Model the fold of this input.
Amino acid sequence: MKRFASSLVLCFVALGLQMVSPVIAAPVIADIQISPGATSTRIRLIASEAINISAFVLTAPDRLVIETPDINFQLPPDSGLSSEGAVKSYRYGKISADRARIVFDLASPLVPGDIVKSTSMGGGAYIVSLFLTAADRQSFDKAAQSSALSRLSKDAAPADIAALNQDSRPLIVIDPGHGGNDLGATGITGIFEKDVVLAFSIALAKKIEAQGQCRVLLTRDQDVFIPLDDRVKVARQHGAAVFLSIHGDTIASGVDVHGATVYVGDDRSSDAEAAKVAEYENKADSNGGFSPQPSDSTVADILGDLTLRETRTRSNLLARELVTRIADTAHLNRNPLRAAGFRVLRAVDVPSALVEIGYMSSKVDLDQLTSTEWTDRMTSRMTDALVEFLNPPNMAQDLAKP
Done:
């Protein structure tokens, strides 16, 4: 342990000399130590400074999550692969420009307790200790539910975004599909999907802003191409409370098929047609001449593990609210609420939905999509749905339902 502490001090001293540059380096975590016991467990983070952490638990499967500020993980390659006691293994990664998380897979339930900061005996390193207590199933599930509701409440009006913009209203990011070289579907009159959905999205944004309870940001407000992943980043980087992508339907068995459809993201498609729609929309990058970079599957796995379940629950609530509100204005598809693996719905910490407002191949739908009167009614209904969804008391009641 002394030899480790000495080498750690030298490591941190070297890092300190490098930090003369104007760029502020992220804190380093050089080791994660787990001390199991019969009724309690201690997790120690060996760090270059006294970092602030928070901890919460998740179920199905049972996990403990430690959230930290931006971290430079300097751990051995085999770290976290196996452990003893209540902690089976762990993994770690950045989830945004200023946040990171460590996920511990649990063999038996543990609930987090005190967090204690101290310095190492040799100096030069800080120790952040998290103390955990063995719990029964009922207590663990209650702790997981409590922490989930707390995080959902914060998501509805992010404190950091509110302080930055001096505006505490929830932010809705509206994403007009396609754009630039990516034309989308071509309507039977020769009009392009990219133009139809942009005009509709701008009208929707104006309606929401006029209502006054939410802020709005468009991923594009002109005819430009934006890669799918960048659209998702807009929502995450600005702390969006909702991400809504607007499209015109493209897969149909005939020109007589028409109606609006609301999609949520899911690894499993609800039906074959939904899978085809997602496959088509996911080709937007190649249609626009862009080759997406491969994602970090490890970090993506962490993100999914941490928040995917509760975000998908909220996305389904959002989709149902939209379908209910637009039913008296838009003819709905025979199956108006569907799920598929849309890349643009992969902001796993932002409730998201994709609305196909009509079929570009249907004259009935296209007449509506280009009608000012219909657009006004449709955007009013969608605004009502979004405001209802983002009302925290109603959201809490919905989540409390069995």
In short: Residues 297-326 form the longest helix (30 residues).
